[in-house]
């Protein structure tokens, strides 16, 4: 299965057009949150992706809530937040939001480490963990070199050992890859990232 994955679209039409064009070759499209900006323009941002015909699985970022994303998502989109699904035999578990709580204020959709741990606890096995926030210590460095990832997410990846752990959120770490045990982790960014899983 050819999987196209991205994060942090933030309503950018040129980025969306590139993703839609690339997705013509995809069997599955994964979106790791932050489709819009500051809880505004979500429907318009998702409409930019309407040309994608492959099944889509999205998690909310900190710029949109799970409820907002579920309401705005059209047919062919599965929204996960503390939940899983199976597509063509691949088990996907998703967790959105900023973890730990960001300094951005009331508009930001965030969770504490304890909340994230509780949401991830039901997941015993997955081929793909689709996350908005990165794990602590990997693909989580800001421009000031601060490590701002989630300890709960790191622990869940180490416990579950998915084949892929995909995230976004920290723009300065877009494109950074690494491993936690046998799991490949990628901070995606708003560009086509390709993976092939059987």
Automatic annotation (TrEMBL):
GO terms for molecular function: hydrolase activity. Residues 1-172 form the Calcineurin-like phosphoesterase domain. Pfam families: Metallophos. InterPro entries: Calcineurin-like_PHP, Metallo-depent_PP-like, UPF0046_metallophosphoest. This is Ser/Thr protein phosphatase family protein. It comes from Roseovarius nubinhibens (strain ATCC BAA-591 / DSM 15170 / ISM). The lineage of its organism: Bacteria, Pseudomonadati, Pseudomonadota, Alphaproteobacteria, Rhodobacterales.
